[in-house]
Design a protein that fits this description.
The complex is a heterodimer of chains A (273) and B (273).
Chain A (H helix, E strand, L loop, with lengths): L7 E9 L5 E10 L4 E5 L6 H8 L7 E6 L9 H8 L2 E4 L11 H6 L8 H9 L4 H10 L15 H15 L3 E5 L7 H17 L3 E5 L3 H7 L2 E6 L2 E7 L5 H8 L2 H6 L17
Parallel strand pairs in A: 3-7, 3-8, 5-6, 6-7
Antiparallel strand pairs in A: 1-2, 1-4, 8-9
Helix pairs in contact in A: 5-6
Chain B lengths: L8 H21 L10 H12 L8 H36 L16 H19 L2 H12 L3 H26 L3 H8 L4 H36 L6 H10 L3 H29 L1
Classes of the chains: A alpha/beta (273), B mainly alpha (273).
Chain lengths: 273, 273
């Protein structure tokens, strides 16, 4: 079975945590291989939970999930780890050890594909420094190759984490707020790199974004998430300011502070559909 | 005012009271009586013995004996530690929950069957360290005869149990996000350990190991008293002959050894930081 032809599917999937809190419910989602999708929504809407569900990190408490043509939770452990090696998750917050060198942190992307012996050998002497440098160069970080992670800024660390996933060469790329610590120009460039990778490798890409303007500018399909439910799932060109106002409306803040919810004021054309 | 009080406050107060209440029976059961120290007869005896400490023995013949015994002690401690590491590292990797793949979808809590598999290893570690090294030494002196071999085996077994337990806990106490991220990208456990746990844990592991090596030096001295060679055997002989000057020299040697271990540990950690 070829993983390359497969996207992902959620059928009536829900997720509740051990303390009974419901994070996601009734999600139906079908993504074709090679599609690029942005996920937007207010804080606490479940964007991170959804991405971790799709990374086969969290197991849905109801419904079904299918990733790259396989149902991860019916697979035996070894095959699930193989499937996971084809999924690249860019996490929020640093998942890089502070005392690790950038080259090692990037090469770690391929641990799921390398044998343990090769991985351990590469820890003594980086076996593919060129590969790591290539991934970093796309993000304008090639000069940081032999620096330690704790010498980098937040935005640079974020780019190292992205370089790791680029180096991993996954079939499914999930990015949780991948550009939150970057200035607008860099953020735009970085999203461009992710999309270019997805295009060149027929990789499915889902990215959660805080900045609505970035989501609408870079992604043709946008999913709005609120209270663990999908509010809308449509082409970016069909999303109206009213959709966004409803998505981000905050009753508590509204009552306490400002009378008017500030709808993201993006220069937009009239919706065509 | 907040409507909700700190929910952790009451358990904290109760735990402090409990700890204090447990101290009292401890004092009673151990029959600690400081007055015995200041009894006139005892004071005189001790004073006499202590006054013979100065000047420490320093004739060439004794110094040569001292150097030989010191080297033997160092050799016992180092060989014992190496044996202990051979036992401790694999056992710690098996026992620690830090590398649990089944814990990924369970919020960091391994599945019951995975915990059950770790229990025999934890049990083995408990058995190894619950018997004091002096008892092992007495057993091995019976088995392999008088001499350093008994000391090496005793330290190797007891310290293997201690190091294995503490290493496993150090692995668990580091920031586990990097390790989980690697396991989630399909990495085998050993690779995830080398790239995720080790960079964060190496400093603590190193300083604890050097401290244990220092303890092993002391332990090898104590085991000398039961015939396992080294400085301990010499101290035992000198104490029996009330040769205070020789005891003083050996105690000074001790001080120097511990100081050296401390400097070595600081230097190593400085290199690593």
């Amino acid at each position: 079975m070829s993983l390359r032809q497969q996207g992902l599917r959620l059928i009536d999937a829900g997720l509740s945590y051990a303390d009974g809190k419901v994070a996601l419910s009734g999600l139906n989602l079908s993504v074709a291989a090679g599609e690029s999708i942005a996920i937007i929504g207010p804080s606490g809407a479940g964007k991170t939970s959804l991405l971790h569900l799709l990374a086969s990190h969290l197991r849905p408490s109801s419904g079904q999930i299918e990733l790259l043509g396989q149902a991860p939770w019916t697979l035996p452990g070894r095959q699930r780890q193989q499937l996971r090696s084809q999924i690249g998750l860019i996490q929020q917050g640093s998942a890089l050890p502070a005392r690790q060198r950038v080259v090692t942190a990037v090469l770690a992307g391929k641990l799921g594909q390398w044998s343990t012996g090769k991985s351990l050998l590469s820890l003594l002497y980086p076996l593919d420094a060129e590969g790591a440098a290539g991934a970093l160069a796309q993000l304008d970080l090639a000069d940081k190759l032999y620096q330690r992670c704790d010498q980098l800024s937040g935005g640079q660390l974020q780019r190292v984490a992205i370089a790791r996933v680029l180096y991993q060469q996954p079939q499914l790329m999930l990015a949780d707020e991948p550009v939150s610590a970057m200035d607008p120009v860099l953020a735009s460039h970085t999203l461009g790199v992710l999309k270019q990778y997805a295009r060149n490798h027929a990789c499915t890409l889902l990215a959660s974004l805080h900045a609505v303007d970035l989501a609408l500018a870079h992604f043709s399909r946008v999913i709005g998430l609120r209270d663990g439910r999908i509010v809308f799932d449509q082409p970016a060109s069909c999303i109206s300011p009213a959709d966004l106002a409803a998505l981000y409306a905050n009753e508590q803040l509204q009552a306490a502070h400002s009378p008017a919810v500030v709808a993201p004021s993006i220069p937009r054309q009239v919706p065509r559909c | 005012m907040l409507s909700q009080r700190d929910p952790a406050a009451l358990p904290r107060v109760l735990l402090t009271l409990l700890a204090l209440a447990l101290l009292w029976p401890g004092l009673v059961l151990s029959e600690l009586n400081l007055a015995v120290l200041f009894d006139a007869g005892n004071l005189g005896n001790m004073g006499q013995f202590l006054s013979s400490f100065w000047p420490p023995a320093h004739d060439p013949e004794f110094l040569q004996l001292l150097a030989q015994a010191t080297l033997q002690t160092l050799a016992i401690a180092t060989a014992g530690m190496s044996l202990a590491l051979l036992l401790a590292i694999p056992l710690a990797l098996l026992a620690t929950r830090a590398l649990s793949i089944s814990a990924l979808p369970r919020g960091g809590q391994p599945a019951w069957w995975a915990s059950a598999l770790r229990w025999p290893v934890k049990g083995l570690l408990i058995v190894l360290r619950s018997v004091p090294e002096i008892v092992w030494a007495l057993l091995f002196v019976r088995a392999v005869g008088l001499g350093p071999t008994a000391g090496v085996l005793a330290i190797g077994i007891t310290y293997g149990g201690m190091l294995g337990k503490v290493y496993g806990e150090i692995f668990e106490s580091t920031d586990l996000r990097p390790t989980r991220a690697l396991l989630l990208a399909g990495s085998p456990r050993l690779s995830a350990f080398a790239y995720g746990v080790l960079p964060n844990a190496a400093g603590e592991i190193l300083s604890y190991s050097v401290y244990r090596w220092e303890c092993a030096i002391r332990a090898s001295v104590i085991m000398g008293f039961v015939g396992a060679g080294g400085l301990g055997q010499q101290i035992d002989l000198s104490l029996r002959m009330f040769a205070g000057a020789e005891v003083a020299s050996m105690l000074l040697t001790f001080l120097a050894l511990v100081l050296l271990a401390d400097l070595f540990s600081r230097w190593l950690r400085g290199r690593l930081a």
